[in-house]
Design a protein that fits this description.
The protein is of the alpha+beta class and 153 residues long. It has one domain: 2-Layer Sandwich (STM4215-like). It has two helices and seven strands. Strands 1, 2, 3, 4, 5, 6 and 7 form a seven-stranded mixed beta sheet that branches.
């Protein structure tokens, strides 16, 4: 049966990042979560907001003459968020967010095949926003994890 690699790659990305960030006491979320709890530092795999609702965006192309498998190219939208509580120190939030972003990049460099689920996973485009909130400065990096894979049979 033909099947996309997205579910396995998504799950593996959550696992790889959870393991890589465990020592930093950073919460890794599988998709957006509604909670009353204020989380100071987190990484969201499958990030979405009011302007950005697609958590995976990609395409498939036939591979070979037999057409049993397709080559998939897609991006999983993620985010690093650092909330500083009562501090409004935007530079400190930005530095910490990029430190965590570096750990994400290092985790992908260390396991670019995401536990064997894809051919290649790497950091793609990213953007930084730094709003001041009622809970302090927020540094948020929204980024893509770009994936090259084959569909499953």
């Amino acid at each position: 049966m033909w099947m996309s690699s997205v579910p396995a790659a998504y799950d593996a990305l959550v696992d790889v990042l959870t393991e890589a960030l465990a020592a930093e006491d950073v919460t890794v979320l599988d998709g957006p979560v509604v909670t009353e709890q204020v989380v100071m530092e987190w990484v969201v795999v499958g990030y979405e907001n009011d302007e950005l609702s697609a958590v995976v965006d990609g395409s498939n192309a036939p591979e070979g003459l037999g057409r049993a498998r397709d080559q998939e190219t897609y991006s999983i939208t993620c985010a690093v968020q650092v909330l500083l509580g009562s501090s409004t120190d935007a530079p400190a939030g930005r530095r910490r967010a990029y430190a965590l972003f570096g750990l994400v990049g290092g985790a992908l460099a260390g396991d670019p095949r995401l536990n064997g689920t894809v051919m290649m996973a790497s950091i793609g485009a990213h953007s930084l926003s730094q709003p001041q909130t009622t809970q302090g400065a927020l540094a948020q990096i929204v980024f893509a994890v770009d994936i090259e894979a084959f569909t499953r049979l």
